[in-house]
Prior knowledge:
Layout: E1 2-4, H1 44-57, E2 64-66, E3 73-77, H2 80-88, E4 92-95, H3 100-113, E5 119-124, E6 129-134, H4 140-153, E7 157-161, E8 167-169, E9 176-178, E10 181-183, E11 188-191, E12 194-199, H5 201-204, E13 209-211, E14 218-226, E15 232-237, E16 246-248, E17 254-256, E18 259-260, E19 268-273, E20 277-292, E21 295-303, E22 315-318, E23 321-328, E24 332-333, E25 336-337, E26 340-343, H6 344-351, E27 354-355
Helix pairs in contact: 3-4
Amino acid sequence: xxxxxxxxxxxxxxxxxxxxxxxxxxxxxxxxxxxxxxxxxxxxxxxxxxxxxxxxxxxxxxxxxxxxxxxxxxxxxxxxxxxxxxxxxxxxxxxxxxxxxxxxxxxxxxxxxxxxxxxxxxxxxxxxxxxxxxxxxxxxxxxxxxxxxxxxxxxxxxxxxxxxxxxxxxxxxxxxxxxxxxxxxxxxxxxxxxxxxxxxxxxxxxxxxxxxxxxxxxxxxxxxxxxxxxxxxxxxxxxxxxxxxxxxxxxxxxxxxxxxxxxxxxxxxxxxxxxxxxxxxxxxxxxxxxxxxxxxxxxxxxxxxxxxxxxxxxxxxxxxxxxxxxxxxxxxxxxxxxxxxxxxxxxxxxxxxxxx
Length: 356
C-alpha cells in the first residue's frame, strides 16, 4: 500500500483549500462523474441506523452492509430476538453463524501470530468473515506462516493475494508542502471560529509547518498527529483565511460537505485526488488492520477505489457526507483499486472539530 504525500490548494482572493484524495502504486483512470458509481448510495437515515443498531446490538451482530441489488440496510444477527429488534426499525435482519466478538477474536489471533508486513485484514459482514489480503512482497515462508495461522481459524477467514505493495511513497511537487513532502488535504474543519484541515497522520508526522507553495510562506501549523496505530493529523490555518468546506470534483464544480458518517460495506464512495482526480468505488471491509513496514494501522476501511502516487491524505466521501482520510493502497488494476481510508469521525472526535 503506497501512502503518498500530496495535497491541492486553491487560491482565490485569499485561499480556499479544496479537498483532494488518495494514493497507490499505479495510476487509475479519472472518473468525471458521468458514469454510475459501483455500489449503492447510502442515505442519512441508513448511516444513523447502521451506527445505532451496531451499538445497541453489541455482540449479537457482526456488522451491517447495503444489499447490492435492493439498496436495503442488512444487519447481521445471531439470534431471533435480535432479528426482531432489527426488523422493528425497518432494516433487514440476516442470521449469521459468527458474531462480532468471534470475528474480533480471529483478528486478535492474526495480530498476535501473523503480524506480517504486507498483509491486512478486516471484517466483511456480507460474508460473515475476516477478509485477509497479502501483497506481492509477502514471501513464500511468510505466506506459509499465514496459512498455518488461518488454518486454525477455519472458514471464519479468507485469504487473497493482491498485486502491488503496502508501503509509503513520498513525492515532491506542488500542493501543500511540509518538511520536503507534499500531501493531499482531506476536509476543512472548524472549532468555534478557528479553521483547520485534516490530512493523513503520516503526512503531519513529517512536518509542523505547511505552505501552499514550495518554499512559500506558511499557511498553517500542525496541531496534532497520530501515526502509526491511527493515520490522521490536523493543521490549523494561521494565514487568516476562511476556506470553503468543499471537495474538488475536477469537472469545474465542487461538492459541499455538510456531514460526516462511518462508511457501510456495500456502499458507493468517491475519491478526489490530485493525481487520479475523481474516482469511485465500493466499500468492501471495515475494522481493517494494515501492516505497514513502519507499524500497523487499525480500524481502517477498505474500498475498490483507484488511486495513484500523490493522492495520499485526501478525501473519501459520498454526496455531501465525509467518510474518510486516505491512508494508502496496494495499487490499481484497470479500474479496480484497493484504497484504504481512516474513518473521519474518529479524527473529528479526537480533535473536537466538525466539518462545515
